[in-house]
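Predict fold of Polyphosphate--nucleotide phosphotransferase; 535 aa.
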Amino acid sequence: MAKKADGRSAGRADRGTKGSTPVGLGEAPDAEAVVQGPTATKKATKPAKAAKAAKPAKGDKPAKAAKGDKSPKPAKLDKAAKAAKGDKPAKPAKLDKAARAAKAERVDEAAKAAKKAAKKAAKVLEAEREAQADLAKAAKKAAKKADRKAAAALEAAAERVAAEAAKAAKALAKQTEAERAIAEAPAADPEPAVGPAVHLVADPADDPAPDAEPAVDPTAPTAVEPGPAEQRPEPAPPRLRVLVEVPADKYAPPADVPSVRAALRLPGGPVDLAAIDPRATPSFAGDKADALADIGAMGPRLAELQERLYAQAVAGGARRRVLLVVQGMDTSGKGGTVKHVIGQFNPSGCHIHAFKAPTEDELAHPFLWRVRAQVPGPGLIGVFDRSHYEDVLIARVRDLVPRQVWSRRYATINRFEQSLAKDEVTVVKVFLHISPEEQKERLLARLDNPDKHWKFNPADIDERSVWPDYRTAYEAALEKCDGDAAPWYVVPADRKWYRNWAISRLLLEHLTELDPRYPAGDFDVEAERKRLLDA
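Predicted 3D structure, encoded as tokens:
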């Protein structure tokens, strides 16, 4: 019993030492139960040894010592129990104070850490602000540097533009020298004498009244079609003027040469294509080299007028445009006209369409339905390679429609072209007049050159068999559809170089008459320039 009691006391003393539960005086009865055993007298005489037995590190040794030693006195039992229980625990009030101190210490440390973090964040923010300021300064310097570069670039561009303008002005002055000579020429010049190698041109100043005599005397004997070196007698009507071709080394445009428009336009009334020489060169006294040089000189002027026409429509809202209609027999040069004449323009400002045999869908509509869809838009130069006139040419010659159908189409075409003129479309209709002999030579050239076989069509030979019928059909179309809204111009086409020169000149005269202008800007130029440089 004493051994078990000592062990229990030791265990409680151990717990008291660790401070898990405060130990009080209420444990004294357990100590008294120990001294009430069979050997109570002996154990009570030595209480100090019993206190030694309470050490937990000695194990069972405290129990053995308790058997041999005298029991402590009852008066001193409480002191032994208190010693066995270990140190006195701290009072609850002191524990709360320590906890509050520890908590306050932790709060202070947290506050110090927060202050330290705030200072660090402030330093980082200040560093970012300094970096932004540096970047702003660098950006301003770069902007100033860029402004200087931009200003230098603008100055260089201005110098280039000025040089190009001077060059263009010089070329234009040289190009229009002949035109100025014509404009400044006296009103009445003596006519040149009739000599070898002459051709006829029309003089609009001598146009007779509508009821006057025809331009060609119908009683005159039929003359053989002259060749390039044959002499043609001077006609009696005053509206015709005879000009002499001069050698190329003495070429200078005569001051009294009428415009190509006046020279190539039909006089009105019945048309006789057999009376017009396909090798003639109206309004031109030079040769091929002169024509090519003049075409090259016209090129920049044509391109400039086209750009003005386009600019007027795009930026100015104008509706003016030009439509060149090219008709002629096979091999007359319709494709060549597109290549050599229209090639002088900016292709982005042109609308070119070649009319072929109508499709089933097109045949299901009126004959002008497909033509209306190809009329050029405002600001454009349109070209029709063949046109609505095929519906009164091949349709008539090959009996594709009854006579009562194609015969009504002339009036329909006139109304259509008048509507185009009202819509500010300048229509320039050109008939390429070629001789059957020249056509034969060109067809043979295609057959003899394998590279040209793709252009040959066996049907072209079949069409030659009805050449007189086609001539009659063309004469009717030229006569019935030759109005002021859309006049016809007959261009002799046996000489390709003259064909190209004449059509180029026709377009130049029409565009010059239109006189398109660059539209003015609707903004403050100086303000926009400053805004651009400051950006």
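Strands lie at 198-202, 240-244, 321-328, 350-354, 381-385, 425-433, 488-492.
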